[in-house]
Amino acid sequence: MVSKPSCVLAFDLGASSGRAIVGRLDSEAGIVTIEEIHRFSNDPVKVGNHLHWDILRLFHELKQGILQMKHLGYTDIESLAIDSWAVDFGLLAANGELLGNPYHYRDHQTDHVMDKVFDLVGREELYAKTGLQFLQFNSIFQLYALKQRNPELLQRADTFLMIPDLLRYFLTGEKHSEYTNSTTTQLLNATTKTWDTELLEQLGLPGELLLKPVSSGSRVGVLTKEICDELDVPSIPVIAVGEHDTASAVVAVPALEEDFAFLSCGTWSLLGTETLAPVLSEQALAWNFTNEGGVYGTNRLLKNIMGLWLVQECKRTWDKEGKNISFAELVKLAEQVKPFQCFIDPDDDMFLNPEHMPKQIQQYCRETEQVVPLTEGEIVRCMLESLALKYRFILERTEQLSGKKYPGLHIVGGGIQNELLCQFTSNATQREVWAGPVEGSALGNLVVQWISLGYIANLREARKLIRNSFPVKTYFPEDGAGWQEAYATFSQVASRLTVK
């Protein structure tokens, strides 16, 4: 008798869009298939001087995804799970109600807050405790900004829940903090893997708001009766997967080797490797690398890079100006212009949340005495070449910190649809690039559910399964001399590179 495929549902929320994806596992054939059943935009909302996430709209879209699941005949879903971006959170009152819309990580409330925290806890001590890259929007700085600006809100709060924890709470009525996302707060001790109570006391932050993290793969409730009645669906079990989308994306890297380098490429680029333990050396601190928790006890040594946010923001600006050029058309325009005219450091603070990204790109080039890109194609080419060169810079530092040498780079995520960037990355690193799968975070979400349900034994088996199920495109390096010269120029104009 042929066994029936197992079906589970993944909600994968990115910084610009979200999707509901049904995964089907045919254990006998050793194949996974997926179907996107619902997609929606995820747009921050500016109210006054602050930027927020529209969290109730996101919850509404989750319910629409569950409805679509039912309408498409998926009546045998065994579980569901959510992954999302990191650092942002909501606060619940004692009665379980949400205290306001969560702030967006690009909100300016955290401007200059890092220095105030460093006055209380030095950089070296904070890194030794948490092992996390210093980014002004980390949860620790958001909480400290709230303490300074709106202490009444913290006083009213009873529970701190990160975005997927919060949405899961809306679905199940149960409050849990998942481990991989908790590690991105810069409040979890990298060695003990528990909340650092001493650090919380030093900053005067209310540690009682924080729930003990549960391990990835834990079963953390079922859909509430209210949800089931509203949507006319059964009470589906809910699993806490690697709820940081990068943790899920790394699960889905189809690597056959034990040691590999990865790039999760989307709105953000996250480049690094897996290690057995956090790397907390002086060099890791000096280079501002991060150590984030992975599923099943792994450690992700990586660096956050600004990523395709640069292109997305340029397109948004051009759309407002009535130009309405598609991403595919922008890439074609970039292909047609002269290479290596100018470069930026993608991680310069001026690109975090500018009013007009194209003008900001031009301003950087002007300040560094380069050719100033004028056309859309020139601006996009500048960004894509700079991203590829930054990937080389971070890959080489990852090798030095890990003590490993990587023959190539695995790229997963929506960014692999930009084939020009993939080729540029191979050229810049002078290594093979293996691109795929596109839906990295969603696939990592799905396979951890299947591990939890007992259909897949471990991560190695999961990665082999993904490798057998989805195509991987290989890019080979070209024009080594030209890209080597470009890298030398890039290193000079990205003058702040050594401290980023």
TrEMBL record:
NCBIfam families for this protein? rhamnulo_kin (TIGR02627)
Mind telling me which InterPro entries this protein's record contains? ATPase_NBD, Carb_kinase_FGGY, FGGY_C, FGGY_N, Rhamnulokinase
Indicate the family of this protein. Belongs to the FGGY kinase family.
Q: What class of enzyme is it?
A: transferase
Organism in which the protein naturally occurs: Paenibacillus alginolyticus
Matching entries from Pfam families are given as: FGGY_C, FGGY_N
User: Which keywords does UniProt give here?
Assistant: ATP-binding, Disulfide bond, Kinase, Nucleotide-binding, Rhamnose metabolism, Transferase
Q: Give the EC number.
A: 2.7.1.5
Give the protein's recorded name. Answer: Rhamnulokinase
GO MF: rhamnulokinase activity
- Carbohydrate kinase FGGY N-terminal domain: from which residue to which, for each copy? 8-251
Gene label: rhaB
Residues forming the Carbohydrate kinase FGGY C-terminal domain are 262-451
Residue ranges annotated as coiled coil are none
Instruction: Reply yes or no: does the keyword Lyase apply.
Output: no
